[in-house]
Amino acid sequence: MFGGKSRRFQFSPRWKEMMIVTGPGGHFTLDFWMGIPTISLPLEEQWREVAPGWAAELWPELKAELEDWCRANNTNLEIDPKAGVY
Known about the structure:
Layout: E1 10-14, E2 18-23, E3 26-33, E4 38-41, H1 44-50, H2 59-72, E5 76-79
Parallel strand pairs: 4-5
Antiparallel strand pairs: 1-2, 2-3, 3-4
């Protein structure tokens, strides 16, 4: 639990500017720029095209949980139509 809410996702920053996101169906990686700490997340429309199948409909929860994580870790969240998901 984080902030009294049940969480679907866990976030693990890694070397080489990666954020490993683990959720109910597996994991994926988002870009995590370290110069000015910033995580890039695709727009919801793009997310459905590039996300793992199990996560395609979870963008609102992912975004909200990333916002909480970013606030707690002094990191920016950038919604970017060109953001990668690996």
